[in-house]
Write a structure and sequence with these properties.
By secondary structure, this protein is α+β, with helices and mostly antiparallel strands. The protein is 43% helix and 20% strand. It has 13 helices and twelve strands. The strands form three sheets. It has a six-stranded mixed β-sheet with strand order 4-3-5-2-1-12, sandwiched between helices. A hairpin with a 7-residue loop joins strand 3 and strand 4. Bound molecules: alpha-D-galactopyranose.
Length: 404
C-alpha cells in the first residue's frame, strides 16, 4: 500500500522506538458530508463520502498490553498507556484520548489485548469538520484489531466505535465511523441507522465537490462541543413535544417512526402550530433535512446536478437559520462559491466553523477554486498551504491495513 508520508512515518518511528520491524500501515480517511447534517443522531439518513486525506498509522506490535503512540506533528507528544476494559482518560482535549477510546472499547469487547508502538501522520485538517478525530479512532482500532489477529465486521466495528467515541465527550451520531470504515471509491454512500447500513452511489464523472475551510476551528473539546450537545437535547425535546401535540406519544419515540407516520411537509406545518421559537426551528431543520437527503439521493442517481446543488443551498439556509450552526465565514464561502457558478454550497459537518462543500460542474472547478483563493483567503492575508484549506474532494475508499 502506498502512503505519500511513509518516509516521514518511518523516520519518526526510528527516532522514538528504533527501526520498525514487521510494520503495518493503517489508513483511515477523513470525510465530507454532502448532505444530511445534524440528523444522524436523530436516527435519520445521511449522504457522505470519504476523502483522499487520511490518518496514517505505522505500527509494530508488542508482546504486552502497552500502546505507545506519537505523531509526526511535534504538537502531539508521545502517549503511552495499557490496553484494558477501564482506561483512565487523559485531561480533556488531549489527543491520546482518541486512541484510548478505541482501546478501551475493544478491550471490553475482546478481553486481553496486545499493544503496539505507533506513529501517526495526518493530512486531514484538524477541527475542520472533516472528521479527523473519528479517523484517528478508527485507525487506532484497526491497529489494535490487526495486532491481535481479530476480525470484526466493518459495520459492527463502526457501531462499536461510534459509542466508543463518547469517551472523549461528544455524543455524536454514527456517520463518521461508518463512512470512514465502509466507503467505496468513486461513490458517496447513503447511510441508514438502526440497523446501520450503507448504499453506495457513484459520483457522476463531471461533478466536482470543492471543500473549503473557513479558517475557524470547530474544536471538539470547546464551545462547539457544548453547542453540539445542546442541539442533540433540543432535537429530543422538540420530538417529545410534537408527538405529544399529535397524540402519538404512546407509540412514537423517534424521528424515523414519526416521518413514517406523516410526510415532512405536513409535519412542518403541524409543527408551526404546535411548537414555537427554538424548538420549532430545530424540528423544522431535522424534518426538512431528512427530506432533502432523500431528494438529493434521487438527484445523484439521476445525475441531476442542478437539483442536487439546489438542495445543498437549501440545506445551508436551514442549518444557518433554523439550526443556527453557521458563522459569517461559512456564509461568506457559500456566497462566493454560488456567485462564481457553483450549483450549490453548504456548510458541512457540525458547523460553527469548519468547512463548506460546493458542487460545480467539472469545467467550473478551477474558476471557483481561484475565486475562493482570491476573495476569501487572500483578503485574510492567509499565508499557509492553500491546498490544505481548499481542494477538490476525490471520493475515496474506506480504511485499510497492509503489511509494509
Ligand atoms: C459531527 C458528528 C456526526 C454528525 C455531524 C453533524 O461530525 O460526529 O456524527 O452528527 O457532526 O451532521
Amino acid at each position: 500500500m502506498e502512503s505519500p508520508h511513509l518516509e516521514q512515518l518511518e523516520h519518526t518511528f526510528a527516532e522514538h522506538y528504533g527501526a520498525p520491524r514487521g510494520a503495518y500501515l493503517v489508513l483511515a480517511p477523513g470525510r465530507v458530508n454532502l448532505i444530511g447534517d445534524h440528523v444522524d443522531y436523530n436516527g435519520l439518513s445521511v449522504l457522505p463520502m470519504a476523502l483522499q486525506r487520511h490518518v496514517a498509522i505505522l505500527y509494530c506490535e508488542r508482546d504486552d498490553p502497552t500502546v505507545r503512540i506519537v505523531s509526526t506533528d511535534p504538537d502531539y507528544r508521545l502517549r503511552s498507556f495499557e490496553l484494558g476494559p477501564s482506561i483512565e482518560p487523559y485531561p480533556e482535549g488531549d489527543w491520546g484520548n482518541y486512541a484510548k477510546a478505541a482501546g478501551q472499547a475493544l478491550a471490553q469487547r475482546h478481553g486481553e489485548l496486545r499493544g503496539f508502538d505507533a506513529v501517526v501522520h495526518s493530512d486531514i485538517p484538524v477541527a475542520a469538520g472533516l472528521s479527523s478525530s473519528s479517523a484517528l479512532v478508527v485507525a487506532s482500532a484497526l491497529a489494535v484489531l490487526h495486532a491481535n489477529d481479530i476480525e470484526m465486521e466493518k459495520l459492527a466495528l463502526a457501531e462499536l466505535l461510534a459509542e466508543a467515541e463518547h469517551y472523549v465527550g461528544t455524543r455524536g451520531g454514527g456517520m463518521d465511523q461508518a463512512i470512514c470504515l465502509a466507503a467505496r471509491r468513486g461513490s458517496a454512500s447513503r447511510i441508514d441507522f438502526n440497523p446501520l447500513r450503507l448504499t453506495a452511489h457513484p459520483i457522476p464523472p463531471d461533478w466536482g465537490f470543492i471543500v473549503a475551510f473557513s479558517l475557524i476551528r470547530a474544536e471538539k473539546s470547546g464551545t462547539a462541543r457544548e453547542t453540539y450537545n445542546l442541539r442533540t437535547r433540543e432535537c429530543g425535546e422538540a420530538l417529545q413535544q410534537m408527538t405529544a401535540a399529535l397524540g402519538l406519544a404512546d407509540r412514537i419515540d423517534s424521528y424515523p417512526t414519526l416521518l413514517a407516520e406523516l410526510p415532512p411537509a405536513q409535519l412542518v406545518s403541524r409543527a408551526e402550530e404546535a411548537l414555537e421559537g427554538t424548538l420549532l426551528r430545530r424540528f423544522r431543520h431535522v424534518v426538512s433535512e431528512a427530506d432533502r437527503v432523500h431528494r438529493a439521493e434521487r438527484a445523484l442517481i439521476d445525475y441531476d446536478l442542478k437539483g442536487f446543488g439546489h438542495l445543498l443551498t437549501e440545506s445551508h439556509q436551514s442549518l444557518r437559520d433554523d439550526f443556527e450552526v453557521s458563522c459569517p465565514e461559512l456564509d461568506e464561502l457559500v456566497e462566493i462559491a454560488l456567485r462564481t457558478g457553483a450549483a450549490g454550497a453548504r456548510l458541512t459537518g457540525a458547523g460553527l466553523g469548519g468547512c463548506v462543500v460546493a458542487l460545480c460542474e467539472e469545467r467550473r472547478v478551477n474558476k471557483v477554486l481561484k475565486t475562493l483563493a482570491k476573495r476569501f483567503y487572500a483578503t485574510r492575508g492567509f499565508e499557509g498551504r492553500l491546498e490544505d484549506q481548499v481542494f477538490l474532494a476525490e471520493p475515496s475508499a474506506g480504511a485499510s491495513v497492509a503489511a509494509l
